[in-house]
Amino acid sequence: MSLAKIHAEILAIRIIPNVDRVLAESFQLKPNHRSLAVFTSSVDDVGYTALDEATKRADVEVVYAKSFYAGSAHASGPLSGEMIGILAGPTPDEVKSGMDSIIQTAESDAYFEAINEEKTHAIYAYVVARTGSYLSKEAGIQQGEPLAYLIAPPLEAVYGLDAAIKAADVRLVKFFGPPSETNFGGGLLTGSQSACQAAADAFREAILSVAQNPLHY
To answer: Which keywords belong to this entry (predicted)?
Structure first.
């Protein structure tokens, strides 16, 4: 079944070429991290995936990444969205390269999938073929290992994760107990790339079964 894609929108971006010393201390920046790229995204999990991708394409590190409470529908302003992310690097050019990668990932590669016509019911079943420094640290795995990044509304997340873990030779390395800041849930699974894909497919199918008949048990 082909599901409609829901892409994230990068809402605001700013580059700080030479970060102030006090702010650098607040973010515990390394001595060579002189520049920052700051952005907000309308979808948090796509933003985190894009941050990880940036660490593979530029000399940057993720120094801050947080979701906002209740999601973009209840954002604090029109440019807030669901999350804020900050990259640090040695030069403005490096953090700009990282930001270019984030935009490309959000526009083309990573997306939620709508499981109803109104696009009010959606899931994230994305396979990271090779993790960068950010997601590998979050998951507690070696950099370069695959991940299945699985997110859904609360009940669907629990049911879908169980199906995903049973469907393939994968292990759960991070559990996002529902509700998250944006009222979803899910987890990160690792294994071979093919196993992660099988887990993501099983996650999607399990949640579709819930959506099609939510009260059948």
So the answer is: Bacterial microcompartment
* pLDDT 10s digits, 55-106: 999 999 999 999 999 888 899 999 999 999 999 999 999 999 999 999 999 9
- Nearest C-alpha neighbor of 31 from the set 44, 39, 40, 19: 19
Q: Is the pLDDT of residue 2 over 90?
A: no
- Sign of the torsion formed by the C-alpha atoms of 144, 163, 109 and 91: negative
Take residue 174 and report the two structure tokens written for it. 């991070």
Strand partners, 16: 36
Q: Please tell me the predicted confidence (pLDDT) of residue 65.
A: 98
Positive or negative: CA dihedral 35, 9, 42, 178: negative
Each residue's pLDDT tens digit, 201-216: 999 999 999 999 999 9
Contact between residue 128 and residue 147 where contact means Cβ atoms under 8 Å apart: yes
Cβ-count burial of 78 within 10 angstroms (0-12 exposed, 13-18 middle, 19+ buried)? Answer: exposed
Q: Which of 152, 147, 112 is nearest to 161 (CA)?
A: 152
The H-or-E segment that residue 29 falls in is none
> β-pairing, 10-16 with 35-41?
antiparallel
- The number of residues in the chain equals 217
pLDDT of residue 1: 60
Q: With b meaning 16 or more CB within 10 Å and e meaning fewer, what string describes 108-120?
A: eebbbbbbeeeee
